[in-house]
C-alpha cells in the first residue's frame, strides 16, 4: 500500500492535480490503508501543520512586503540605488540585483520582489536599449535573493520542519546572500560590457543624497527588524508584526497620498492569498511526509546513505543534486516538507553542520524558483508582464548558471555559512 500511495502521488502529478491534493491523497492512502490510522487523525494533521507560532511570521512578512510596494516606500529605495549605480556600464541590471537584495530583506517574498522591482526597473531598461528578455531575466533570478537574505520565508519553513532556531538561520544567511548578490552583479556587468545600451547620465551628488534621505525609511527597516531579533527585543514572529507596524507608520508619514484604505485592503488580500496557498501546501505536505515517516522511508534512506563508502561532502553533493532535480517538477515549499524529514537525519548522522545544510538547501530552493517548467519567479513575471515563460527563461539563463556557481562556492566553503556560530 505504501508503494501504491507513492505511485498515486506521481500519477496525480502527471494528471495535473494540484500539488497539495496529490500529497494529501497519496499520504492519506498510506496512513489509512497501510498504517491503519483513523480518519480523524489524518484530517487533524492538516491543522497541526499550520498550528505554529513561528509560521505566523509568514503572513506578516508578506503583508509588510506588499505594503512597501503598494504604498511607495519600495519606489524610494529603487530611486536611490538607480541614482547610485544607473550611470555605470551594466548599472541598470546591477540596480535590479541590489534592489532585489534589499527588498528581499524587507519582505522575504520572492513573488512580491520580482513584481515590485520588475514594474519599476523594466521601463528604465527598455528605454536604455536592453532587450525585454534580458531585463526580465535579471529580475527573475535576483528576486530569489529574498530567500537567502533574512528574513526569509523558506528559512522560517525550514526552521519549523527541522526544529532549529530561525534567528540562527537568519544570521547564517547574511554572508551567503551578499556573496550571491556580488556574483549576480558581476554577471550583469559582464553581460552588458560589450552591449550598445545607452548609458544614463551620472546623478549629481545632491540627487544621490536626496534620494538616500528619501529611502532611509525603507533602508532602516532591516536594521530595526533584524537588530531587534538579535538584541533580544522580540522573537522572529514578533519582528514580522513589528515590520508591518513600521511600514504602516512610515507610509502614513512619508506616503500620505498612497496611505488609503483601498491600498491597505489590496495589500492584505494579496498577503492572505499567498499565505493560504503556502499553508494549504503545508497541510498536504505534512500528511505526505508523516506517511513516509510511518512507513520507515526516512530511516531506510538514512541507513542507505550512511552506509555508502563516500565522504560527508560527497553525500551532501548527492542530496543537493536530488534537490535540483526535484526543483524541475515541484515548488520549493513541497520540496522542503517532503525531503527535509527524510534527508535531515542523514545530515545529522554524518556529522554535517545543520546550519550549513540549511543554507545549501535554501540555495537549491532559489534555483528551483527559476527552473522550468514550474519556476515560481518565471510564472510571476510571465503572468504580470504577459510574456511567455520561454522569454523569461532565455533572459534568466546566464544568471541561472551564476546561481549554480554560487551553490558550488557555498558547498566548497562552509565557513561562509557558519562564520557566526
From TrEMBL:
<feature type="transmembrane region" description="Helical">
    <location>
        <begin position="169"/>
        <end position="191"/>
    </location>
</feature>
<dbReference type="InterPro" id="IPR010656">
    <property type="entry name" value="DctM"/>
</dbReference>
<feature type="transmembrane region" description="Helical">
    <location>
        <begin position="396"/>
        <end position="415"/>
    </location>
</feature>
<feature type="transmembrane region" description="Helical">
    <location>
        <begin position="335"/>
        <end position="352"/>
    </location>
</feature>
<feature type="transmembrane region" description="Helical">
    <location>
        <begin position="136"/>
        <end position="163"/>
    </location>
</feature>
<comment type="subunit">
    <text>The complex comprises the extracytoplasmic solute receptor protein and the two transmembrane proteins.</text>
</comment>
<keyword id="KW-0813">Transport</keyword>
<keyword id="KW-0997">Cell inner membrane</keyword>
<comment type="function">
    <text>Part of the tripartite ATP-independent periplasmic (TRAP) transport system.</text>
</comment>
<feature type="transmembrane region" description="Helical">
    <location>
        <begin position="94"/>
        <end position="124"/>
    </location>
</feature>
<feature type="transmembrane region" description="Helical">
    <location>
        <begin position="313"/>
        <end position="330"/>
    </location>
</feature>
<feature type="transmembrane region" description="Helical">
    <location>
        <begin position="53"/>
        <end position="74"/>
    </location>
</feature>
<feature type="transmembrane region" description="Helical">
    <location>
        <begin position="6"/>
        <end position="33"/>
    </location>
</feature>
<keyword id="KW-1003">Cell membrane</keyword>
<feature type="transmembrane region" description="Helical">
    <location>
        <begin position="268"/>
        <end position="293"/>
    </location>
</feature>
<dbReference type="Pfam" id="PF06808">
    <property type="entry name" value="DctM"/>
</dbReference>
<keyword id="KW-1133">Transmembrane helix</keyword>
<protein>
    <recommendedName>
        <fullName>TRAP transporter large permease protein</fullName>
    </recommendedName>
</protein>
<comment type="similarity">
    <text>Belongs to the TRAP transporter large permease family.</text>
</comment>
<keyword id="KW-0472">Membrane</keyword>
<keyword id="KW-0812">Transmembrane</keyword>
<dbReference type="InterPro" id="IPR004681">
    <property type="entry name" value="TRAP_DctM"/>
</dbReference>
<feature type="transmembrane region" description="Helical">
    <location>
        <begin position="358"/>
        <end position="384"/>
    </location>
</feature>
<feature type="domain" description="TRAP C4-dicarboxylate transport system permease DctM subunit">
    <location>
        <begin position="7"/>
        <end position="416"/>
    </location>
</feature>
<feature type="transmembrane region" description="Helical">
    <location>
        <begin position="239"/>
        <end position="256"/>
    </location>
</feature>
<feature type="transmembrane region" description="Helical">
    <location>
        <begin position="212"/>
        <end position="233"/>
    </location>
</feature>
Amino acid at each position: 500500500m505504501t508503494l501504491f500511495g507513492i505511485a498515486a502521488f506521481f500519477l496525480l502529478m502527471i494528471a495535473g492535480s494540484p500539488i497539495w491534493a496529490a500529497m494529501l491523497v497519496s499520504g492519506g492512502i498510506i496512513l489509512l490503508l497501510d498504517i491503519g490510522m483513523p480518519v480523524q487523525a489524518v484530517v487533524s494533521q492538516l491543522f497541526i501543520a499550520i498550528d505554529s507560532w513561528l509560521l505566523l511570521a509568514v503572513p506578516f512578512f508578506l503583508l509588510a512586503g506588499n505594503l512597501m510596494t503598494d504604498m511607495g516606500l519600495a519606489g524610494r529605495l529603487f530611486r536611490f540605488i538607480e541614482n547610485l549605480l544607473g550611470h555605470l556600464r551594466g548599472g541598470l541590471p546591477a540596480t535590479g540585483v541590489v534592489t532585489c537584495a534589499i527588498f528581499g530583506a524587507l519582505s522575504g517574498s520572492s513573488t512580491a520582489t520580482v513584481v515590485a522591482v520588475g514594474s519599476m526597473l523594466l521601463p528604465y531598461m527598455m528605454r536604455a536599449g536592453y532587450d525585454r528578455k534580458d531585463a526580465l531575466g535579471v529580475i527573475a533570478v535576483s528576486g530569489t535573493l529574498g530567500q537567502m537574505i533574512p528574513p526569509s520565508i523558506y528559512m522560517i519553513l525550514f526552521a519549523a520542519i527541522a526544529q532549529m532556531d530561525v534567528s540562527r538561520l537568519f544570521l547564517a544567511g547574511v554572508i551567503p546572500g551578499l556573496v550571491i548578490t556580488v556574483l549576480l552583479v558581476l554577471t550583469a556587468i559582464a553581460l552588458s560590457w560589450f552591449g550598445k545600451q545607452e548609458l544614463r547620465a551620472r546623478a549629481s551628488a545632491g540627487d544621490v543624497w536626496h534620494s538616500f534621505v528619501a529611502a532611509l525609511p525603507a533602508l532602516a527597516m532591516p536594521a530595526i527588524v533584524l537588530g531587534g531579533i538579535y538584541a533580544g527585543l522580540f522573537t522572529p514572529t514578533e519582528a514580522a508584526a513589528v515590520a508591518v507596524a513600521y511600514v504602516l507608520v512610515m507610509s502614513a508619514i512619508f506616503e500620505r497620498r498612497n496611505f488609503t484604505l483601498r491600498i491597505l485592503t489590496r495589500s492584505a488580500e494579496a498577503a492572505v492569498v499567498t499565505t493560504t496557498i503556502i499553508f494549504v501546501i503545508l497541510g498536504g505536505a505534512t500528511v505526505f511526509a508523516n506517511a513516509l515517516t510511518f512507513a520507515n522511508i526516512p530511516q531506510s534512506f538514512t541507513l542507505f546513505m550512511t552506509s555508502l563508502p563516500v565522504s560527508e561532502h560527497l553525500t551532501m553533493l548527492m542530496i543537493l543534486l536530488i534537490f535540483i532535480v526535484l526543483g524541475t517538477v515541484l515548488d520549493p515549499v513541497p520540496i522542503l516538507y517532503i525531503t527535509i524529514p527524510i534527508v535531515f537525519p542523514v545530515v545529522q548522522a554524518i556529522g554535517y553542520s545543520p546550519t550549513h545544510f540549511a543554507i545549501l538547501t535554501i540555495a537549491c530552493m532559489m534555483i528551483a524558483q527559476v527552473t522550468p517548467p514550474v519556476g515560481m519567479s518565471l510564472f510571476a513575471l510571465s503572468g504580470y508582464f504577459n510574456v511567455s515563460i520561454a522569454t523569461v527563461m532565455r533572459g534568466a539563463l546566464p544568471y541561472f548558471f551564476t546561481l549554480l556557481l554560487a551553490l558550488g562556492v557555498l558547498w566548497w566553503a562552509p565557513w561562509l555559512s557558519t562564520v557566526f556560530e
